[in-house]
Amino acid sequence: MAAVPGDASKRAENQQKLLLEIIKRYDTYIGATNTKIAVILSYSMAYIGGVAFKIIDLSAKRSHEWTWWLALILASVSVAATLYGAYRAYEALNPQTPPGRAQHEKPSIIFFGDVANLVGGRDGYVNRINEITDSEIVEDLARQAHVLASIVSNKMGTLNRSIRTLAKVQLPLSLLTIIALCLTSY
After folding, report:
1. pLDDT tens by residue, 106-148
2. Are 57 and 12 in contact (CB under 8 A)?
3. Which residues have CB under 8 Å from 26's CB, separation 6+?
4. SS3 letters across the chain
5. What is the pTM of this model?
6. What share of the chain has pLDDT > 90, as a percent?
7. Residue 115 and residue 117: Cα distance in Å, rounded?
8. 44: burial class by Cβ within 10 Å (0-12, 13-18, 19+)?
9. What does the pLDDT average to over 69-98?
């Protein structure tokens, strides 16, 4: 089959469009993950504050019977689980950048770290944009898509551990803590 002169250019254009859509999707995943992290952190801090205020309130007003100590132990373990879940959420929120590029790779025209450190500053970046080929653009986009996929995978895994801790440990403990605190209130 004979190659049509515009085929390579059309192929590169289609690859670029596909890779840009993939990158947008990953960016959306990162934004959604950060929103979930904000909800987890807000919940965690509100829960810890609520438990602390209730314990302080009960400490000043009640005798310290066995229900008090049970509530205190459950609250402490529950708060520890909440802090662990919040720690995991903060870990997922931490900005993640690629470890660097291989020696044979040219600086990326997309990654902010490479753009900011490009030799020649703004003029060097403009020159790099003007000289880049279609195949280099596709290669750079593919590398950036891979880096973003790694970042999304890591964020999702860390967020999953945070959510599992809260759902499987903290929520049952918080229910028991609430019951114990209600028993202590009488």
Report:
1. 888 888 888 898 889 999 999 999 999 999 999 999 999 999 9
2. no
3. 145, 148, 149, 151, 152
4. CCCCCCHHHHHHHHHHHHHHHHHHHHHHHHHHHHHHHHHHHHHHHHHHHHHHHHHHHHHHHCCCCHHHHHHHHHHHHHHHHHHHHHHHHHHHHCCCCCCCCCCCCCCCCCCHHHHHCCCCHHHHHHHHHHHCCHHHHHHHHHHHHHHHHHHHHHHHHHHHHHHHHHHHHHHHHHHHHHHHHHHHHC
5. 0.80
6. 64
7. 6
8. buried
9. 92
What integer best gives the mean pLDDT of the chain? 89
Residues 6+ apart with CB under 8 A from 101: 107, 108, 114, 143
Question: What is the C-alpha separation between 76 and 82, in angstroms, rounded?
Answer: 10
Residue matched to tokens 């209130």: 185
How many residues make up the chain in this entry? 186
Structure-token pair, residue 108: 């990326």
**Distance of alpha carbon 121 from alpha carbon 67, whole angstroms:** 67
Query: Cα 1 to chain center, whole Å?
Result: 48
Q: Looking at this protein, which amino acid is placed at residue 143?
A: R
Residues 6+ away with beta carbon under 8 Å from 47: 78, 79, 82, 170, 174
